[in-house]
Specification:
Layout lengths: L35 H15 L4 H14 L3 E2 L15 E6 L3 E7 L9 E7 L4 E12 L2 E9 L12 E10 L5 E13 L27 E4 H5 L19 H4 L2 H11 L6 E10 L4 E3 L5 E4 L2 H18 L9 E7 L16 H9 L12 H7 L2 E5 L2 E2 L22 E3 L10 H10 L5 E3 L11 H9 L2 E6 L1 E3 L6 E4 H24 L4
Parallel strand pairs: 1-2, 4-13, 4-14, 14-18, 15-19, 16-17
Antiparallel strand pairs: 2-3, 3-13, 5-6, 6-9, 7-8, 7-10, 11-12, 12-20, 16-18, 19-20
Amino acid sequence: MLIKVPIQKDKAFSSEQPSTRQPQQPASMSAPLISNSAKSYAKDFLSFVASSPTPFHAVASSIALLERVGFTELRERDSWASSIKQGGKYYVTRNTTSLIAFSVGKKWSPGKGVAMIGAHTDSPTLRLKPVSAKTAEGYLQVGVECYGGGIWHSWFDRDLGVAGRVMVRQGDGSYKQQLLKIDRPILRIPTLAIHLDRDVNVKFEFNKETHLTPIAGLVSAQLNAETPVDPTTDSDDKDAGSVAKRHTPALISLISNELSCKPEEIHDFELVLFDTQAPALGGLHEEFIFSARLDNLGCSYCAVRGISDAAEKGEHDDGTIRLISLFDHEEIGSLTAQGADSNFLPVVLERLNKLDIGDGAQATSYEECLAKSFLVSADMAHAVHPNYAAKYENNHKPQLNLGPVIKINANARYATNSPGTTLLQHISSIPLQQFVVRNDSACGSTIGPMLSAKLGVRTVDLGNPQLSMHSVRECGGTKDVLLGTNLFREFFEGYEEAEAKIFVE
């Protein structure tokens, strides 16, 4: 969820379908608080999030799920004229951090509606600066930049790894993107001992530029290590702006070892920090999810599982397209080439409405399609906090494990209106909660308002409830993963029938 920032804001992912069969309980036992089916979905989500420390990895994890049920890749630079068929399932990426996937109904043709779910792949984090090499008082350090509106004090005293993409030069002179995930604690941002800051429990204050710099090692150890790059092997490395000159040599060496390439073949990278503690189920009855990046991998996973679960039933014999769009850069405003405020989704919808399938494209097919379409803007929501209940509006206190939360704001920070809520409630068997902020509180926003304005489609904002939003370690409900997934699956399956009954000119 995007917020305004004041000037001074594992195990390997398995793409296997979790079992939904609930074992029979002994007669003497009451029904469990969290069913085995809900735990199965939640545990698969834990694997998904553990494998997705960055938007690059989140898109790769999503593709693994989609390809398991038969989705095939399209590329923006290619023609789609002969590729897309009624009954087909496809996905396309941009920058490998944003993804759009869709299945085409067997009766769909240009001008008919699209049932859409939009979410985002990014979360607040610390990103390595272009020149990250630093030393101070005998320590090797890594310069980082704040991305988004994180709760930065939660990053202190955590075991941090590094992940992202690295551009590696190939033997033919081309450059290939490789994903990197160093899943062990190599960095740490230490707090100051209470003996040197007696007021720390009264108010924990820090400077984001000078106090939020991780330690990576000792200078003495670096001096004893070999220089990882031979400057005679590559003319680029003689440049003061080269990777070898801008970053700690030991870090470059570690990256090259992880990617099985030579240090001098690393041309550039985009790397962020992440907490290496694995996500887990928690609570007395495993009713909680303790994890990083619930905002917004929680809704991203539910969207991917919703469309893939529906696809597993076979080709849908209706006149709609089912579509999910996972965007990067929501946490910083979305105004990038791969953000929700770009042309990515409009271009995909326009290309689909130019196809010669079904009844074929007409001059106004694109505009007709938008008028018949609907968008669910899916971004995590605020669960009521037991220790700060006064921060919530009295009649709008969402609970964990009671279903997704419809988000409403009179000032259009969310795009929800009554026809949208009615449509979703008509389709879904899943319980839905509602949330508004207090009048004396600021309200966050989502991709919903910008996409509804850009496309003119009916939109509702919702998301699964959580605590500790934007912390390095967040808290959600175990049951809500299954509830969110089932809501999205029912939305896809029931949209055509509901859209015909609930319409406002």
